[in-house]
Structure formats: structure tokens, C-alpha cells
Amino acid sequence: MKKFGTFGGVFTPTLLTILGVIMYLRLGWVVGNAGLLGAWAIIMLAFVITLTTALSMSSITTNTRIGAGGAYAIIARALGLEVGGSLGIPRYLSQGLAVTMYIFGFREGWLTIFPEHPAFLVDLIVFLVLYGIAWKSADLAIKTQFIIMGIIVASLVVVVLAAANGSMVYATGEVARFGNFSGVQAQGSEKFWLVFAVFFPAATGIMAGANMSGELKSPGRSIPRGTLWAIGVSFVIYMALAYWVARSASEYELVSNYNVMIEKSWFPPLMIAGVLGATFSSALASIIGSSRILFAMGQHRVLPQGEWLEFQDKAGQPRNAMLVTGALIFATMLLRDLNAVAPLVTMFFLITYAMLNIVVIIEQRLGLISFRPTFTVNGIIPWIGLAGSLFTMFIINPTISLVSWGLMVFVYGLLSRRKLETRFEDVRSGLFTSFAEWAAKHTAENVHQQQRSWKPNLIVPVADPAAVQGSFSIIRDLAYPKGGAVLLGIGEGGEGNLAVRLHETSRAFRQEEVHSSVAMMRTGHFADGVNFGNQALMAAFFRPNIVFLSLLEPRDAVADFPQVIAEARRLELGAIIYAPHPRAMLGRQQTVNVWLRAQAPNWEVTPDHQNQDLALLLAYKLKLNWAAKVRIITVVDKFDDQLKARNYLQQVITLARLPIDETRVIHGNFFEQLDHTPPADVNFFGIHPGNEMDYYTDTTERVGTTCLFVLDSGHENIFA
Q: Could you tell me how far CA 206 lies from the centroid of its own chain?
């Protein structure tokens, strides 16, 4: 299947959808009613809502691989299939209505040139041409849009030629700064908002590129760049056209004549061609986008007959979804008058905008470690987008707004009863956790709750309270801010001095904003106490996921570490052996080395990685809490493997979205290279089950720094 880049796959369809009929036939009316400054204010307000939403969408698309379906896929992956489907189904239907309205708009423009042509025949021919292009391939549709873009650019050129040839007969001082809204039947400030409501649909085209997400070479790169560039270019065009038309026509002409921009241009036929091209391209983008939404919902089994809907031919075209979409469009064409339901189209665009902003708000508020977008936005941005979207909905039509939200809730209720199986993870687990016991039930029902909502919850076995005091800083820095530490006292004395000391330490952790609690195991055998404690805690909802073992513990406790690690593996818990260097300690806390195991001979990143996710995640935590630099290192036996190893490390960084400062590939024997370890304050190594405990102390002495030896549980995923 052919994949598209930023220009063809995102920028072109988005720009053409924004530069639509309203630009040609309603912008003059907006200027005539609101005046030049008023029109500029309307344009800027509409584009602020669009821009903030586009920024939010960019943040999401650079944090996850969304697949096919555009905004539907983004919302479904973040908030679950039920919420995604409750928006996706109505939006798919409204997209079908939008295609029909664009066809009707094309027909109206056509009949101004050929008034004797039968209206329904024009509609039918346009539909067949559109559908034929979309059915052939998305590639043909993109190429067709390039032609349309040329026509629209040419129509803008004739505006420039008109200005150059004296169309702007009114001086700037003669242009009304704020109009009297003579073409609006309303009172007071309502006039401004009614004009705004007429213009705003011009700014609802930013999803055209995102709808192609499943057919882009790099959605995370193309959607932000293409969408934001399209918004920027179209904003400049709208502002410039408003200035031109304000100086080229009187207030009466602007208010009373929708074709004023066409008539004032240097070559009106080319402007009419621009109107036809705008409606045609918008219809084409909507056909392609809506069929991809239906295809994605089929993939996720949101709709019945999902297996049939997700069918693709050899070229990767969603044929069955295209068939259903074609039938829907043809059926709506038979209605002949869509004025009653036309506002629903704009409403579901605005609901989509609102939901995209809600997703970012939730992700930012939860603070999950999996939310690492390469395109970050300020926390106020999604709130502006959400408030603007909701405000605009109720400005345009309060009744239809309530109907639209009610329809979403109804569809959500239907989908919730179907108990859809989520094939990917979402942030609901982290969201539900914040609602304590009520949320716990919902989180437990989530199939994938570990990887995206993962955070380090340490269980720290303690036989000597001095050992946990010596480990306090590293435990805090690994767990802060969302993790926790359960201090598990191991001793025969029960609730004696050890318990008192651990409760004091636990309070200190909480003062450092690390959630902590204390449990005691009355036993004289360290391994039994830890293992029984871990077994018991497996039934808890908020259970630890990493066993933290410190070599500062007494020698007889350290001798039991291999038994603890073996049981941790059985229980699918991660494990850390903390080996502080007696002289270096944590150093300056400025540099962290992570040693990744060699992946010879293939050097490929697999979906489950290679048992080193926990080390990378913990190093990332230290980077954030120390403001440190992270270096990842691997050792190759063969000199020829060095290039493969470098590419492998770079691929890990790219897929994991990690801000790694340096990579290093070392040729030679791993154990021999330990004496030449690149300078750092902490080194991460893997735990090798079966090694004697002396191995870890010897390694720490050889590298000359404090070391953390790490074993994955299997539930961490650096690519989540």
C-alpha cells in the first residue's frame, strides 16, 4: 500500500478543506456586517479554536502510533473504544452528510454557469466522478487535489491582479472598522456571534489530513506539520482577502451580494472555478476520510460485521467500507434538502475538537510516564481549545448542540453494553485509579492496564533500618512523583525498633511526595519474609511491581537475594539490586549510563523488546528528577556489528520517544570493557540470575560508580 508524506497526505487536503465555499461566497458578507476589524476578530477567534485543537492533536499524535481512523483512533486509543465509537459513529454519518452538502454546493455553482442543466443529473454525475476517484485509490485522489489546489491558487492570483489593477477603490480610512451588522436580524451583541457562527465552519477542516493517518508514512511527523502549516497559510489568506474585499466593495455590496468577491476579481470565471474546485476537493476529502473512519471502526469491532468492514484489497484500499460509504452518500442525496440536519455536521466537528482537547487534558493531569509526546504544548492550550469548542457549539445552535451530545451519550450506552474488547491500551486505568475504590473496579476490568499506566511502585525489604536510610535518596528519585515505596520490615522482633524506624522513614518519603507505607513480616529468614510478603500483596489492587534489594543490608540477608529474585520472576515482579559504591555514592547526579544487552546477530527491536525496558524507564525517571544526561551503551563482539548496533540504539530512542543525550557502541569483551566504563554517576546493568552476589559488588568496584542491576517483570514497555 502506498504511503503518503506531509504535503500530499496532510497539508493539501487540510488546506483545501479550509479554503472552501465560505471563503468565496461568505467572507465578503462577514466583512460587510462586522467591518474590517470585526471580520479580523472573527477570523482570529475561529482560528484560535482551530489552532489550539491542532496543537492538542499534534501532542497526541507524537505520543502514540494511532493507525487508521484519524481523530476517532486518537480518542479511542486514549479513552477507550466506547468513547471513540460514540463519537466515531455519529461523525461518520455526519461526514456522509457533508459529502452530500458539498455536492449540492458544487451543483449550485455549476448552475450559475449552466442554469438549464437538470439539478439531480448534475448531482449524480458529480457523485459518480468523486466516488470513482476515491474508489480507484487514495493516490489518485491526492493527485486530483493537487490539480484543484492549482485552480484555487490561480483564483487567488486573480485577486492579486485585481488589487494591482485598481480594484481597491476605497482608502483604508474609508473602510468601516466595525460594521453595523445591517445584514443580520438580531439584537445587540448577538449580531456579532451570528456572523461568527456563519464563518466558523470555514475553520473546521483540520481533520482532513488526520483522517489519512493509516496511510501516512509517518503520522506522528506529518499530521502536526501538515496541519499546522495548513492552518498558518489559510489564516494569512483569510486575513489578506478580508482586507482586499473591504477596500474593493461598499458595505451595501458586501452585505447584499454573496458573489461580490467573484465579481470584483480580475477574471471572474477563474473564481467560479475556484468555488467548484473547493466544493469538489472538500467532498473528495470527506469521502476518503469517512471511509477510513468506518474501516477503523470495523478493525476495532465497534460495529457489527467488523471483519467485513476491515477488508482491504491488495493495494490497501478499504473496499467494503467504501461500498457502505457510497450507499450512505447516495441515500442522503435522495433527500434533496439537508438544511435541517446540516448543523449536525459542524456540531460533530466541534465535539471532535472538544474530545481531542479533553484527551490532552487528561493525559497531562494524570502525569503518566507513558505520556512523552515529542510535540509538547502548554497546559493552558487544551483548556482554551475545549472552552472555545463548547462555546462555539452553543453560539451556533444550543438545541442542536444538546441533541449532538445526547446522541453521543446514547451511542456510548449502546457500545458499553457490548463489552468491546480493547486491542490496545488507553489511559483509563490511570484515570480510574485517581477515583480510588470506585475507579478500582473499572481499572481491574481493563485488559491492558499495566504498560501505559506503569509507574515504579517499589517494595523495599528491610532487615536493618540503616540500610533503607542509606538508600533513601535513590528510592525517592526512582519513585517520585507518581510512584510509591512499601517498606517491608523483616525480623523476629515484630513491632519493635525496626517498625518504629520504618514508620519514621515512611513519613519522610511522604513528605518528599512519594507515597509510602509499612508492612512487617515476623520471621528470622529474610527470603521467606520477602517472598511471603510479595505473594500476599499480589492480591492487592495497588500492589508493588518492583522488589528493591540493597547491598547495604546485612550479609545474611544479602545471601538470600538470589531466592528473592527467583520468586520475583515467578510472580512477574521487577527487581533492582542497589549496589552503592562506598566512596563515589551517587556522585554529582548528572550522568547515567544504561548498558543494553547485545542483540546480535539481527540487531532488531522487537515488540516486547529485550528485557531492558525497566532499566530505560528508571533511567528516564532519574533524568527527570536529577536533570541528568543519559547515555546508552552496548558492547559488540564483532567489529562489523558496530553500525548495526548504532542503528539499533537509534531505533530504540526513536520508538521509545526517549530524550537520550548520547549513544555509544563499544567493541570488545563486555567484562574487559568494564574497566573502561564511560564516566557517569550511576550505571544500569541487567541482573543475570545465577550469578553470585560477589559479582555485583565486584562489578561496582570495577566501574567505580554506584550501580543498579535491574531485572524486568515483563509488564514494562518502553514503547507504550
A: 15
- Using an 8 Å Cβ cutoff, are 647 and 603 in contact? yes
pLDDT of 358 reads: 86
Q: Are residues 544 and 588 in the same domain?
A: no
Domain of 538, in residue numbers: 454-548
**pTM (2 d.p.):** 0.70
Examine the fold and report which residue of 529, 548, 567 is the final residue of a domain before the chain moves on. 548
CATH number where 393 lies: 1.20.1740.10
- Please state, in angstroms and rounded to a whole number, the distance separating the CA atoms of residues 117 and 122: 7
β-strand 574-579 against 706-711: which pairing, if any? Answer: antiparallel
> How confident is the model at residue 536, as a pLDDT?
86
CB 246 within 8 A of CB 31: yes
Contact 393, 350 (CB under 8 A): yes
**pLDDT for the residue numbered 431:** 52
3-state secondary structure (DSSP) of residue 378: coil
Same domain, 223 and 295: yes
Residue 559 is assigned to a structural domain of this protein: no
Q: Find the length of the chain.
A: 720
372 plus 262 within the same structural domain: yes
Q: Label the pairing between strands 457-462 and 682-686.
A: unpaired
Which residues does the chain have with pLDDT short of 70? 1-2, 65-70, 78, 187-188, 211, 213-215, 336-342, 367-368, 418-450, 493-496, 539, 541-542, 607-611
Cβ atoms 529, 521 nearer than 8 A: yes
Contacts of 668 (CB under 8 A, 6+ apart): 635, 637
Percent composition of the chain: helix, strand, coil (DSSP 3-state, to 5): 60, 10, 30
* pLDDT the model gives residue 552: 95
Whether 432 is in a domain gets the answer no
Q: Is residue 554 part of a domain?
A: no
Q: What domain count does the chain have?
A: 3
Going by C-beta distance under 8 Å and a sequence separation of 6 or more, which residues neighbour residue 710? 574, 575, 576, 577, 612, 614, 615, 618, 684, 685, 686, 687
In whole angstroms, what is the distance from residue 530 CA to residue 537 CA? 11
Residues 528 and 663 in one domain: no
Of the three residues 391, 417, 443, the one that is the final residue of a domain is: 417
Distance (Å, whole) CA 70 – CA 73: 5
Sign, CA dihedral 345-351-357-360, equals negative
Q: Say what the pLDDT of residue 165 is.
A: 87
**Rounded to whole angstroms, how far apart are CA atoms 102 and 17?**
11
Beta strands in 624-676 (DSSP E): 629-636, 662-667
Asked if 211 and 359 sit in the same domain, the reply is yes
E strands, 504-621, are 515-522, 546-550, 574-579, 591-595
Closest by Cα among 156, 151, 129 to 140: 129
CATH number assigned to the domain comprising residue 529? 3.40.50.620
Q: Are residues 142 and 47 in the same domain?
A: yes
Give one DSSP letter per residue of 68-106, joined into a string: TTTHHHHHHHHH-HHHHHHHHHHHHHHHHHHHHHHHHHH
Rama region for 301: left / alpha / beta (φ>0; ψ in -120 to 50; rest): left
> What pLDDT, on the 0 to 100 scale, is given for residue 447?
47
Residue type, 485: A
Looking at the fold, whether 334 and 480 belong to one and the same domain comes out as no
The alpha carbon dihedral of 83, 86, 92, 95 has a sign of negative
Helix (H, G, I), strand (E, B) or coil at 484: strand
**Amino acid identity, position 357:** N
Query: Would you list the DSSP string of 299-341?
Result: HTT-STTHHHHT---TT---HHHHHHHHHHHHHHHTT---TTT
Q: Which residues have CB under 8 Å from 345's CB, separation 6+? A: 94, 95, 97, 98, 101
